[in-house]
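pipeline/complex-builder :: batch 7 item 3
reading input block
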Amino acid sequence: MIENHLINSIYRATEGEGVFLGRPQIFVRYQGCAVGCINCDSKDTWTFDKDMNVSITEILERVYTEGRNGLIKNVSITGGDPLHPSHVPHVLELVKALKDRHYFVNIEAAGTRVVDEIFELVDYISFDFKTPSTGVKTPLKNIQKMNKDYEGRFQVKAVVADKTDFDAVLDAYKTLAVLEDTLEFPWVLTPCFNNEEKFPMQRFINVLSWNEENGGFFRVIGQQHKWIFGPDEKQV
Ligand code: SF4
């Protein structure tokens, strides 16, 4: 059990991906992740560095000041993996404190765990479906549980590097469509834009085309912050 919140960074930026694209918010980025996605663009958040511990009081002060002294009331809790078991008690404490202060709270979930005690308290869950290029797998039962228990409060996001990734997402969607009565949540495809890469225009065009050719079940939303600031820039 980690004694305190391990925090990589707290900063204000405009959301660059998913259904809240373009919305200013404060990011609270937890330090520590054991998921191990091959194409992770935040490998600096992997180590559980005990020197990066921060008190809840300091986090709340930073959220307030970064949010232009309380003017911006949207917070996204991300990582690292904020749902790693060692982070969960701290994230729970933070979510409760933010809700007491009337913040809208989104949590970024890696897709490997459904953590009801946190999901029941937050306003929105951005849940990853891990594609083959990540080297990690999201069990379909996790998406089924999200669909059953968190209707209207979550999106699924999938990074797409190539056709194999796209086909894996499509297979998952079609399998779930047979198993579930309704599949009405937004399912976002994020064409990947890797570190040190030039803007991958052809990859974007391909993903748009594959989606159109296969029924258009998904929303294709790129990572806007990488177009503006480049793929390697942090805290933007
Ligand atoms: S879950 Fe997120 S932080 Fe962890 S390895 Fe995957 S992309 Fe990186």
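note: The pocket of iron/sulfur cluster is lined by residues 33, 35-37, 40, 42, 45, 79-81, 110 (CB under 6 Å).
queue -> next item
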